[in-house]
Design brief:
- The complex is a heterodimer of chains A (200) and B (378).
- Helices cover 23% and strands 24% of the residues of chain A.
- Chain A has 200 residues and is an alpha/beta fold.
- Chain A folds into 2 domains: 2-144, Beta Polymerase, domain 2 (2-Layer Sandwich), CATH 3.30.460.80; 155-199, no CATH class.
- In chain A, strands 1-2-5-4-3 form a 5-stranded mixed β-sheet. In chain A, strands 6-7 form a two-stranded parallel ribbon. A two-stranded antiparallel sheet of chain A has the order 8-9.
- In chain A, a hairpin with a 4-residue loop joins strand 4 and strand 5.
- The longest helix of chain A is centred in the middle third of the chain and has 12 residues, at 107-118.
- Chain A is elongated and about 60 Å long.
- The relative contact order of chain A is 0.10.
- In chain B, strands 1-2-3 form a 3-stranded antiparallel β-sheet. In chain B, strands 6-7-8 form a 3-stranded antiparallel β-sheet.
- With 378 residues, chain B is an alpha+beta fold.
- Chain B has helices spanning 55-59, 68-72, 79-94, 100-128, 133-153, 173-198, 201-207, 215-220, 225-230, 237-240, 266-290, 342-347, 350-353, 359-369, 373-377, and strands at 15-19, 31-37, 40-47, 162-163, 166-167, 309-317, 320-328, 336-340.
- In chain B, helix 4 packs antiparallel against helix 14 (359-369), helix 5 (133-153) runs antiparallel to helix 6 (173-198) and helix 6 packs antiparallel against helix 11 (266-290).
- In chain B, strand 2 (31-37) and strand 3 form a beta hairpin.
- Chain B has a single domain (7-377), classed as Cytochrome-c3 Hydrogenase, chain B (Orthogonal Bundle), CATH 1.10.645.
- Classes of the chains: A alpha/beta (200), B alpha+beta (378).
- The A-B interface holds A 23-27, 29, 52-56, 58, 60, 71, 73, 77, 80, 82, 84, 104-106, 108-109, 113, 117, 131-134, 141-142, 178-179, 183-186 and B 48-49, 52, 54, 56-57, 61-63, 66, 92-93, 95, 219-222, 233, 235, 240-241, 302-303, 307-312, 314, 321, 323, 325, 327-328, 333, 335-336, 338, 340, 344-345, 347-348, 352, 377-378.
Amino acid sequence: MHNELASYINSQVTDANAVANIAEVGDSSISISSAKVYDVCKLLRDGEYEYNVLQVITGCDYPDENKIEVSYILASYTKNTELILKTALDREGDLTVASVVSIWSAANFQERETYDMLGVNFDGHPDHRRILCPEDWEGFPLRKDYVPAESYKDMTINPVHKMNIGEREFGAKHAHIKGATTSVKNYSVDAPEESEELNN
Amino acid sequence: MSTIFKQENLKTDLLTINMGPQHPATHGVLRVEIKTDSEIVAEATPYLGYLHRCMEKHCEHLDYRGVIPFTDRMDYLAAMNAEMGYVLTVEKMLGTEVPERAQYIRTIVAELQRLASHLMFFGVYAIDLGAFSPFLYAFQDREFILRIFEEISGARLLYNYVWLGGVWNDISDSQLKRIEGYLDELEENIKKYHTLVGENKIFIGRTANVGVVSKEMAYDYGATGPVLRGSGVDWDLRKKRPYGIYDKFDFDVITGEGLKGQLGDCWDRYYVRMLEMHESIKILRQCLDGIEEGPIMGKVSKIVKVPKGEIYLRTECPRGELGYHLISDGGKTPYRVKVKSSCFTHVSMLPELAPGQMIADFVATIGSIDIVLGEVDR
């Protein structure tokens, strides 16, 4: 189905470069060129495949491959199908794709969230603001190289007296059991050092 | 003298009111900035993020089992359904086989949770519209369900009960009997509640023809669940794309019919939920008939490593479709988990629904789309 759809997109939209990524495990997807997102989305909604509902716009950061991938997950309620449409953006370059709000109103909040979390700009969005983080927040949290902020305005983030030290101690105490350590990479305080008291 | 009171000499301006973040009618910490012309809403802008707990970021540092408790805390009124959605997503990637009994138990808890969630909606919606006692009735019935959950999982709201490969704890025969016995009472109660509230003249006056979501608008905004069905669309994932063992059961998909007003108004959404409870009871009865003895846990390796790839799976939760987009790089932790929350989608409809409504009707509209802010902000 994905191969047919990819050739259908290529035949209708010039330079769309649609490629079907057939997966052995999980879901297959279709990658398209980032310049043609709007045209392809319009085609998919109005064309014969009738993807009338936009489920999610989401993104994922791949620093090793120097790209940020934006996924559009579409669904058709008339034909009962689902599609993951992807486009890759150059991480260092211009992170801009065309907004699809005029095609689906659902894109409004979804694009704002993608901008908020990954810093992808949507050209032509009517209300291009952050949505979950405060408007003056710095950095884009879901990028892999994001360093958690230490303070916001005059507030300390994750102050020591509010941290769950008990959890850390529990983790250290049970570190000898395989797979029992708590995963706390992002805490600003190191794990308590192993002492005799803890090992008993 | 007379010139002062001429219409053109009077200066008018829109009044900006902040509804929330702490407001009893916004179901949590939602702030809606409303511009009003006396009692009429001219513009409404929702501001989200007051309950943002970086769930998606946390998931990138946790192992696959460790994510399950986090999914509980998103939609805290329907935690079982959220867990089940996540677990099904990972299991589909792993190709795990889940024992029959575990599947049945999952369906039982999911449908009980749906009942509890809809009962909560019923109670809270009545409070939104100024009736207090339905809340107490609804909580009485919800309490039974929560007690059962407490017995089988140890917790009342946040369970961590549905695990990869099965469920954490078995459910005993006596508990199943108690559920079966209670279903008859519950069915009678729900009918009673509907006659008490749904057919009430004041209730109909407050909800009929208010906050109308047309079919086109529902598609445009990607509405799901009772909001979509309230607009007359015959769409239920349990029927259309069955997951788990839902294909075994016989039940109807309830759609709004516009009985008291326009199709897709608040009353329709309310009515869809009320009838859906009866369908849940139907499914539960079939579950209780069909459940057999057997193991409750399938084979899952101790350290879960999901093969490289991605998946998007959605399940039908009480508030709409909850989807998980999971990207794995083959490691012990998910590379990216994106949660598609139905409440988030439904909140985005408010700016279009609000203009022209009275403020009190706007409260009725927010109540009828039944949002939980834990899931909106994640």
